[in-house]
Amino acid sequence: MPDPIFAYRDASPAAGEGPLSNVAVLIQPNLAVRGWECGAGSVALEKYVPLEDATAVAKLKAAGAILPGSVRMAELGLGTDGDRMADALKQGLGQAAVMTDLMGEARCAAVASRCYGFKPSYGLISRFGLNGLIPSMECLGVAARSLDTITTIMAVLAGPDERDPSMRREAALDFSQVNQIPEKPLTAGVIRESLQGLSPDEAKHFEQALARLGTMNVRVTAINFPDYELFRVVHQAVGSVEASSHAGKYDGVRYGHRTANAENWNEMYLRSRAESFGLLIKSFLFQGAYFQFQNYSAFEHACRIRGRLLRQTLDLFERVDILLAPLGFRALDSSGDSCLEKLYDHFEPALPANVVGFPALAVPGEIWDPDMNRGLQLIGPPLADVRLLAAACQLVNAASGKGTHDAE
Questions:
Q1: What phi, psi does 153 have (nearest 5°)?
Q2: What is the rounded distance in angstroms from the CA atom of residue 373 to the CA atom of residue 367?
């Protein structure tokens, strides 16, 4: 009988010496581990076994982390249908998780398990060895019950990798400084347009969380962002084109699933592709193919809008230290969705950080409001990951009245 949680489970995981000694870190089966099946939740990659470790996996091992196995995931990381990382964290099968975040999945899984979830700046962690889907928007996120654990894992994973051309070339960040940055009054911006989809009950709890933040030396200010709705449009247009192009290699010829019933090469190709993907991924790939081959000018326009959104978001950080947004109010209930529009409805609050590549931290909402069973998202400017985590520690300590960064 298949394991309901693990896609692959190591019968005797080894522990090493280092900053992550005896820390059990869960991963997904789209991250290469030598000798493990790495199917990424898709028929397209069934029975694929990597010959070497992904850079992130090699760094975790070198830091002494225990890798219990890979947890079942949504197909190629899109959405939450079939993803069991939240369940694995709830059951204590690992102390932390490293998983793909391409539209907010890592952050939402963290909130669902009452953990913190961190999406770093794009290009900070190597994607070498990751079977991804949207190369310019996805990154490896970290979920853990403790902010200190996230900081330690980020210190291990962040850094250059010449095998990944998407890596940032700026000076490496020093995550040991998280607890050494002096506390200061924070200015937090809330984008008005990001609240328009909330139900009355959701809006009530979000406002209560903001009110409590206002008592903790945080100045909360409302910000207008007229182009906010374009984050979704850009993610869907640019993301689907990248996915369509990226998944083109799963054709049953070079590698990947090949159908057992075909009379010629053309039929083999068509049937292999038809059998390789589920309905949601097919819908995404078809949409991308449309923009690639039928309406390329729309894709080019989406790329230009993406640049504009990046500049506009950077401008916001001239006025505030961090941005605040609700997270996971619907994404946690998106399991089973096969409609792209519904999927984007669920993940809409998380999309901006992926589109512009900024760091974002999901914090369990009950830290600020006991009745708030969803999350609060803190977003910072690019490569301000250390300062964002330091700000989160400051807020969480003030909210809990404790000197710890652990979620309850």
A1: -65, -40
A2: 10
106 contacts: CB under 8 Å, gap ≥ 6: 97, 99, 100, 117, 118, 119, 140, 141, 142, 143
Please report, in angstroms and rounded to a whole number, the separation of the first and last CA atoms in the chain. 34
Phi, psi of 140 (to 5 degrees): -85, 120
- Secondary element (H or E) of residue 361: strand 360-364
pTM of the shown model: 0.93
Question: Does residue 81 contact residue 336 with C-beta atoms inside 8 Å?
Answer: yes
User: For 168, phi and psi rounded to 5 degrees?
Assistant: -70, 140
Q: Which residue has the tokens 């090469």?
A: 265
Q: What does the block give as tokens for 2?
A: 């298949």
Q: For 247, which DSSP code?
A: G
What does the angle CA 162 – CA 20 – CA 66 come to, to the nearest 5 degrees? 95
Q: Which two tokens stand for residue 275?
A: 């059998």
14-40: per-residue pLDDT in tens?
Answer: 888 999 999 999 999 999 999 999 999
272's tokens: 């292999």
Closest listed residue to residue 59, CA positions, set 145, 155, 141: 155
Is residue 150 a contact partner of residue 142, using CB atoms and an 8 Å limit? Answer: yes
- DSSP letter (8 states) at residue 27: B
Return the amino acid letter for 310: L
Please list the alpha-helical segments (H only) found in 143-264: 147-157, 200-214, 230-246
In 10-154, DSSP assigns E strands to: 25-26, 69-71, 96-101, 116-119, 139-144
Looking at 40-85, which runs of residues are DSSP E strands? 69-71
Helices 296-316 and 230-246: crossing angle in degrees, nearest 10, is 130
- Interatomic CA distance for residues 342 and 139, integer angstroms: 23
Report the SS3 class of residue 71.
strand
Q: Which two tokens stand for residue 241?
A: 């084109």
Question: Residue with structure tokens 């952050």?
Answer: 107
Write the single-letter amino acid at 157. L
CB 385 within 8 A of CB 173: yes
Helices 385-400 and 200-214: crossing angle in degrees, nearest 10, is 90
Could you tell me the two tokens for 158? Answer: 């962040």
Q: Which of 83-87, 168-172, 195-199 has the lowest mean pLDDT?
A: 168-172
**What is the radius of gyration, based on Cα positions, of the chain?**
21
- For 311-327, what is each residue's pLDDT tens digit? 999 999 999 999 999 88
CA torsion 171-218-310-325 (nearest 10°) is: 120
Run of H or E residues at 62: helix 55-62
| Structure tokens given for 94 | 């690992």
